[in-house]
Design a protein that fits this description.
The chain is mainly alpha-helical. The protein has one domain. It has four helices and no strands. Helix 1 packs across helix 3. InterPro entries: DUF4190 (IPR025241). Keywords: Membrane, Transmembrane, Transmembrane helix.
Length: about 110
Amino acid sequence: MYTSDADAGRAHPAGPPTSGLAVASLIFGIAGLVGSWCLLGIPSIAAVVLGHAATRQTKRGLRPGHGLAVAGLILGYVVAIPAIIVSVIFGVMVFVHPAQAAAWFNGVLDWFF
């Protein structure tokens, strides 16, 4: 499409702003994925909560950002679900076999240090 010189100075109407919740969900999802175990999964849980709120906000198409919200949800769940599973398993191990839990935890620390 060609534009004329008359259109050069005119501002075009902007659409509705992208959902801030969707953007925040994606940012927290990325932070949770990058910092996963160091940040204790907190950003991932925030990404899931914000992602669900953003999908409700963007579902009807009144505000853009539905794809960002879904991406934040996926990234959040990718880290949050394994973190919850490992935490539950370790919590059960601590109460059932404390010595084995300590040995397992020391073995995990040996991987990193």
